[in-house]
Amino acid sequence: MLTKAQLSRLRALREKKTREAEGLYVVENPKVVAELLAAGVTFAELYATAAWKNPAGPKSLPVTVATEEMARISHFPTPSEVFAVGRITRETLPAGALAQGLTLALDCVQDPGNVGTLLRVADWFAFDRVVLSPDCADLFSQKVINASMGSFARVKTFTVDLPAALADARAPVLGCDLGGDDVHTLPALRDAVMVIGSEGRGLSAGVRAAVTRFVTIPRYGGAESLNAGVAAAIVCDNLRRARTA
After folding, report:
1. What is the distance between the alpha carbons of residues 122 and 26, in angstroms, rounded to a whole number?
2. What pTM does this model have?
3. 3-state DSSP assignment of residue 215
4. Beta pairing, strands 173-182 & 157-159
């Protein structure tokens, strides 16, 4: 049985400032917890009801809690069968990293679902890394982690001063923009940085200044724009296919 102090501490992790102060993040989605365990994540704490089927077996044993306790610590109206607590870790982008491989860069993408989806896109197309500007959605929020469906643990992520990082990039910097070149005409690039901006504002001025080529997805219908995740998937697919052709 959890104490009042434990219940209060776990509930408080729904707030970003508490997560940052404690250096912890939370995942409650059973499928995502299973994906993260499969990816080798070791949780600092793991709580589950008797209904949870532990995919890791004895390698990761949870503290069993009653359904009523799970409802009290859950960050959602409908509680999950599992409540996992992980440690926040951040790495510094190595010098010269943007000179090699494929990088997906996110410029002020503030929707958590989009950030999580973009991590999945980077994972699907085996990009070497994802770099995010500080004003992107919190990488360690449940919404981002759930939308990434396990890619959160598989993709290398770095939060950086994006204009400064791109200014030092020795690889071509491609920016998504409606006025850009047809993405289907992209040449084969061994190394490249693909920048996706927010749906509402596009690329920021500082980032635009570092772009070496703007690209767009040809529009045949009447839609005003594409979701950031959809657009990134199409561009990354063309970049990857041109690279491996």
Report:
1. 22
2. 0.92
3. strand
4. unpaired
Distance, CA of 105 to CA of 76 (rounded, Å):
30
Domain-embedded: residue 160: yes
d(CA 10, CA 83) in angstroms, rounded, equals: 9
Number of neighbours of residue 177 by Cβ within 10 angstroms:
17
How many domains are contained in the chain? 2
Q: Are residues 101 and 121 in the same domain?
A: yes
Amino acid at 38: A
Show Cβ contacts of residue 68 under 8 Å, excluding neighbours closer than 6 positions: none
CB 48 within 8 A of CB 81: yes
Which residues fall within 8 angstroms of residue 8, CB to CB, at 6 or more apart? Answer: none
Two tokens, residue 97: 């990293």
Give the integer Cα–Cα distance in Å for 190 and 186: 12
Asked whether residue 200 is domain-assigned, the answer is yes
At 56 the pLDDT is: 78
Residue 200 has pLDDT above 80, yes or no: no
